[in-house]
Amino acid sequence: MPEDLQAFAAAVARVLEDATLQSQLGATGRRYARGWSALAMAQRLAGLYRELREGSRTCADARACIATPSARGDTSVVRSGDA
Predict the structure, then answer these.
(1) d(CA 31, CA 16)
(2) How far are the Cα atoms of 16, 56, 73 from residue 5, in angstroms, in the given order?
(3) Mind listing the pLDDT tens digit for each residue in 34-58?
(4) Which residue has the higher pLDDT, 33 or 1?
(5) Alpha carbon of 8 to those of 16, 44, 63: distances in Å?
(6) What is the helix (H) or strand (E) element at residue 20, kind and residue range?
(7) Cβ distance 44 to 78 under 8 Å?
(8) Do 48 and 62 touch, CB atoms closer than 8 A?
């Protein structure tokens, strides 16, 4: 539950009233969600394995090595055809 309910309500009302904002938020959310697809995760994992194999990266905790997707859509560590 948000701490400032009035601010939360105002933010929700703004989204409901602004079609452009709705579109922008939707597009950003879709790009972010694609970063968590099975393909995107497999590409990041393949990239991590390649970097570890080549010695260009070392990690004590491999989970920390897998980059999280960004809202900008930078989701792929491995270029198409590299995996």
Answers:
(1) 21
(2) 16, 48, 31
(3) 988 999 899 988 988 888 888 877 7
(4) 33
(5) 12, 35, 34
(6) helix 19-34
(7) yes
(8) yes
pTM of the model: 0.52
Residue spans per domain, the chain: 5-65
CB of 66 closer than 8 Å to CB of 75: no
- The answer to whether the CB of 30 falls within 8 A of the CB of 1 is no
C-alpha distances out from residue 63 to 12, 48, 49, Å? 35, 10, 12
Contacts of 62 (CB under 8 A, 6+ apart): 48, 52
Tokens of residue 16, six digits: 């409901």
